[in-house]
């Protein structure tokens, strides 16, 4: 994997010059539907943002990590909780339900040397905290952030700007 030199200047414009939503107008409709779906109230919005922040960290997207950090700050989350998402497994700042959600996103996004990514044990642990609709919502929240991973990694919107702002 090619890495940027630590002395290289970071671009201040997105890599892709055109707004993907203008090129593919259906994107706005899909995005809005996914946001409504994950906002159905069965999983706290904070938990969804924690999971999506962790996804951004795992895939190495500064845009996604800054975006979801901003959502968590606006929700009033402490700096300790936001910062320790990267090392959630030994952090005292998360509930058992949040830990199950964070373990689930890691299992989905990281290869497993031992076979199945989401083990029966992990599924059972998540199901203890998230009944039916909530577990389905959590699963789809992981899918939601993964839907936008290619946009974040290929088009490279500028971190700290809204999703459409770099193209306005």
Can I get a quick summary?
The protein has about 170 residues and is an all-alpha fold. It is about 60% helix and about 0% strand.
Keywords:
168 residues, mainly alpha, 8 helices
Please give a structural write-up.
- It is built from eight helices and no strands.
- It is globular and about 45 Å long.
- With 168 residues, the protein is mainly α.
- The chain has helices spanning 20-23, 26-38, 45-59, 62-74, 79-83, 96-109, 120-129, 132-155.
- The longest helix is centred in the C-terminal third of the chain and has 24 residues, at 132-155.
- 58% of the residues lie in helices and 0% in strands.
Q: What does the average pLDDT come to?
A: 90
Instruction: Round the Cα radius of gyration to an integer and report it.
Output: 17 Å
Q: Helix/strand/pairing class, anyone?
A: mainly alpha
Order of helices and strands: HHHHHHHH
Sum up the overall morphology in one term. globular
Runs with pLDDT <50, length 5+? Answer: none
| DSSP strand tally | 0
Amino- and carboxy-terminal Cα gap = 31 Å
* Number of H/I helices: 8
Characterize the biggest β-sheet: none
Set down the secondary structure blueprint.
Layout: H1 20-23, H2 26-38, H3 45-59, H4 62-74, H5 79-83, H6 96-109, H7 120-129, H8 132-155
Helix pairs in contact: 2-8, 3-4, 3-6, 3-8, 6-7
């Amino acid at each position: 994997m090619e890495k940027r030199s630590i002395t290289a200047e970071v671009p201040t414009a997105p890599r892709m010059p055109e707004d993907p939503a203008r090129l593919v107008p259906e994107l706005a409709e899909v995005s809005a539907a996914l946001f409504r779906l994950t906002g159905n109230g069965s999983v706290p919005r904070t938990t969804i943002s924690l999971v999506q922040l962790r996804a951004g960290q795992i895939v190495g997207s500064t845009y996604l990590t800054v975006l979801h950090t901003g959502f968590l700050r606006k929700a009033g989350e402490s700096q300790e909780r936001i910062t320790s998402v990267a090392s959630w497994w030994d952090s005292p700042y998360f509930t058992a339900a949040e830990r199950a959600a964070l373990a689930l996103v890691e299992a989905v996004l990281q290869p497993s040397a031992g076979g199945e990514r989401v083990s029966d044990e992990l599924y059972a642990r998540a199901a203890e905290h998230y009944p039916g609709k909530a577990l389905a919502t959590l699963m789809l929240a992981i899918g939601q952030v993964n839907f936008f991973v290619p946009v974040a990694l290929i088009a490279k919107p500028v971190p700290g700007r809204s999703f459409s702002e770099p193209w306005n």
